[in-house]
Amino acid sequence: MNTKNVCIIDQFLPDHLMYTHLESELIKSDIQLTICDTANIDTSLYDLILLTDPIKTHNFKTQDKVLGMRTLNRKERLDIAHGVGASCIAKWAAPKNKDEYFDLIKSWEANYLVLKYDGYSQKKSVYLVSTEDQRLVFPDNFDPTKDIVMECLLGDSFTYKVDVMAGNILNAYVREGLSIFDPGFPKLFSTARQFSLPEYVAIQLRAISQELLNYGVGYASIDLMKHYGKFKIIEININGIRRDLSWSSCYRQYAVSYPNAILHTVNLLPSIPVFSQLTFRHKPVVG
Description:
Layout lengths: L3 E6 L7 H10 L4 E6 L11 E4 L14 E2 L6 H10 L8 E2 L4 H11 L3 E5 L5 H4 E5 L17 E4 L7 E7 L2 E8 L17 E2 L4 H14 L6 E9 L2 E8 L6 H6 L1 H17 L20
């Protein structure tokens, strides 16, 4: 087997113990891993480049294989989940105008809705809306091509996070946080404990992750909440996934799952789109 060269660009945790472990594990499978804390690299040296965050200034070439750019907006990610037949998704819609918006409110018969705007900052992009508010209007800044309206789940306030990559489950862990009804939302507490993910949910998340690979998405984190005892997807995060807490709290799990997922991804290299085939939400400069 020819040695494959993989580069991970991580500007925040380049010295994490996990990377030392990855290097020693992957070389056993003829994968030479390089960790960089800058995008100023010679991309021609690598068969695959993995980004922990999208990079605004690029030196990528048209034939590079890069996973981790911002290639999908909030609505598109949920569309992909529906496209693979996932059923454990919270009820959502993208109304095109005020008539569709108010028809949706009437049909859902809900006291609250959650407006979710496409963007990086949850605090600035997620809003609770009371449908009983007499001042309720269809928001002027709502873009149905990328923003969504979602049902308000009335279970616990925990976020059940599942990290995935190329059809593999890396880890499933719980983040405790404040309810969306709390003024301090979306604060999450600095704890992460693993939970048992039902297989019927895991099957769907693997399918979503596998399909995301076709859009230049590798490492992703899928957020779920419990609604009447059942898990529901509320968000699919593909960029800016903070890993320091989960890696530290569940190191042994990632120490096995992450190198296996990278190996699996390398084996899928022929089917991964090249850089020039990707569509970007922040237009890169291809050189």
